[in-house]
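User: Can you predict the 3D structure of ATPase? Sequence below.
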Amino acid sequence: MDKFQQSQKNKLFKTPTHDPYSASRIEGAAVCPKCEAVYGAGTWSWKRPENTVVHGAQTLTCPACRRIEDDRPAGTLTLSGSFLHKHRGEIIQLIEHTEKKEKAEHALERIIKLDDATDDLVVTTTGIHLANRLGHALEAAFKGSSEYHYSDSEYGVNVRWSREE
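Assistant: Sure. Here are the predicted structure tokens for ATPase:
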């Protein structure tokens, strides 16, 4: 078997990476005491049943709040380039707007923090989908180039976006 065939075989039979922050299925309903997301039927959402109290719900911290508390992002977006420095306010506004839309639909997709202490702007997220969506939103709005790197050893994605003037 040549190297290419071995590489393809390894990809085919690779065991899926386990996300230590994914909640195991529980019976019944649960409410996160930190963000008030509701768990039911295997998913977390913002939708509460018609009455405002979830009867018989247990208290369980959702995976997103656990990631925020532990500062363990699933996604990292790193922005760089001269365009970033000239349009920083607009870019941050786009990032915050994109997070607001994603978070409204998916309770576990949130920004952990925006760190702009260096020349780069680093955004960490609780889910891989938000980091991915932010990269695509930046490309659509401001052009530039994005690279997406999914981790082989752990659950996560690193996205790099850059644009020079």
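Residues 69-162 form one domain. The mean pLDDT is 84.
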